[in-house]
Amino acid sequence: MAFEGIAQWLQNTLLAQFIAGSAWAFPAIETVHVIAIALVVGSISIVDLRLLDVSWKTHRVTDLTQEILPWTWGFFIVAVITGLLMFISDAASYALNFAFQIKLLLLALAGANMLVFHMLIEPGIDSWDINRSTPASARIAAGLSLTFWIGVVTYGRWIAFTTTDNFGPL
Asked: What is the mean pLDDT of residues 13-42?
């Protein structure tokens, strides 16, 4: 089944029709989504700002990540679930929305950046975890992370105000 067919099938489900047709469901889901994204980006920013040596310099990166990242993952799961619920309400249109496509691309880049950090940079953390300058590789990863997440928020906001007629498909 082609992607367009899958998108059409999704938006024809009873749940999608309820969300699209209800006066309160979509706004309620969107409210939870926005709060979850704010908490994801806020918690990631704490770690990224530490990696950039901007703040929390007296805190170990490992302590910050152990305290914050479990919450980040919880908020992220809520954001994904609510995002999927909003998506299915008009899947065929969202799938072609340029801002939506860019948001997904930036999410993928943020995920790839996180994997690179955890697989290649974090294993050497003992040498710079506290009271030492963060290595350039970790600062670059943090800068990219902040950039990607700011982009996710920006393009996520633009989704409601853009159509394929405005920008064309990716």
From this structure: 97
